[in-house]
Amino acid sequence: MKITKSQVQVLHAPADEQLVDVQPKSGGMRAFVTVKMMTDDGIEGIGLTFAPALGLSPLAPALKSAVDALCALAEGQDPMEIEAVMQSLREKTTGSGPGGILTLAMAAVDMALWDIKGKALDQSVCSLLGGYRKRVPTYASGALMRPMNLEQMAEIGPALVQKGFKQMKSQMGAEDTPAKEVLRMRTLREAVGDDIDIMCDINQLWNVNQAITIGSRVEEYNLFWLEDVVAHDDYQGLARVADALNTPIAAGEYVYGINPFRQLIENRSIDIVMIDLLRVGGITEWRKVAGMAEAFNLPVVSHLVPEIHIQLMGAIPNGLTVEYMPWTLKLFEETPKFVDGCLEVPDKPGLGLKFSEDAIKQYAVS
């Protein structure tokens, strides 16, 4: 089997979707790049990536050009030999990465290859990667964002529980006093009760001293984790926070490729390894980081694209929970089923996904 051609498109889709009705509607758009890769056997694989910015990213055309170029370089190669294809692309683009647009573009190509391989062998990607389980816990993300006031948080949290979520993520980092930051967690905990897991994302907005001070004050609310409390590449600072707090520290979504994860793990900077499928460079690299985490007895959590991450998290024994962020759900005809606070691995070959042609037509940028 050989790769013959690919179709790459830029989409500008609505930034967010509501998980519950009481969640305020948000405006704005996000830029995605999709790929359909064809073979001489008639098998088509799909992949996607994103320009990580809110709004009509000026870098989306450059990302599309990078995906186009990588797809062209992959033509004529055997899509079943994924490691060989991806290594050849890295060699042909040496000096242009490993981070940034190149890695984001690599991710889309790599996904399409895994989709092709699964379809060719009539197995899910989860099965190809090991097939550990059919259902993985998932947490609501994007509904309890920083702009939500206390009254909204007290309403949205219980609504998510009513919908079936047993885990949910909120945010701190924007209040002007530590007391106000702590009040956000107190409000949410009192609203949802003690049996619901609450995560909290700081998005790198604190310094080390803030993280330790405020993190200590919110420990009574039993957070499942604190996420990206300081700058993503401050490995020693993260380690100081992780050592000072009982609450687990999660990080990893902001780093590109696999090498920074070695630094995070070896420096004991984190307790939970968060892997972004797009920034790490695709499924091939994602599973390498997951294996690295397992060797250090650390759990793995996903970031974004739950439709694809369910395949990966279902394949590893140290997968903790899938982020249910609804940015990309609208792009597919059918998405993984949400059952009793979990996502189910689709019982279909490859990624088990198909792009919605209506969505592609509606959001495509000419």
Describe the structure.
It is a single chain. With 366 residues, this protein is of the alpha/beta class. It folds into two domains: 3-122 and 357-365, 2-Layer Sandwich (Enolase-like, domain 1); 126-344, Enolase-like C-terminal domain (TIM Barrel). It has 13 helices and 14 strands. The protein has helices at 60-74, 82-92, 101-121, 125-128, 150-163, 178-192, 208-217, 235-244, 259-266, 277-280, 283-295, 306-313, 357-363; strands spanning 3-14, 29-39, 44-54, 135-144, 167-171, 197-201, 225-227, 249-251, 272-276, 300-303, 319-324, 338-339, 342-344, 364-365. The protein has an eight-stranded parallel beta barrel, surrounded by six helices. It has a four-stranded antiparallel beta sheet with strand order 3-2-1-14. The longest helix has 21 residues, at 101-121. The protein is globular and about 60 Å long. The model has no long low-confidence stretch (mean pLDDT 96).
Which keywords apply here?
366 residues, alpha/beta, TIM Barrel, eight-stranded parallel beta barrel, four-stranded antiparallel sheet
How is this structure best summarized?
By secondary structure, this protein is an alpha/beta fold. It contains 13 helices and 14 strands. β2 (29-39) and β3 (44-54) form a beta hairpin.
SSE order, as H and E?
EEEHHHHEHEHEHEHEHEHHEHEEEHE
Any idea of the CATH class of the largest domain?
Answer: Alpha Beta
Main sheet makeup:
8 strands, parallel, barrel
Domain count: the total is 2
Strand order of the largest sheet: 4-5-6-7-8-9-10-11
**Chain oligomer state:** single chain
Per the CATH scheme, the topology name of the largest domain is: TIM Barrel
CATH architecture label name of the largest domain: Alpha-Beta Barrel
Which whole number gives the mean pLDDT? 96
Radius of gyration: 20 Å
| Superfamily (CATH H level) name of the largest domain | Enolase-like C-terminal domain
- Structural class based on helices, strands and sheet pairing: alpha/beta
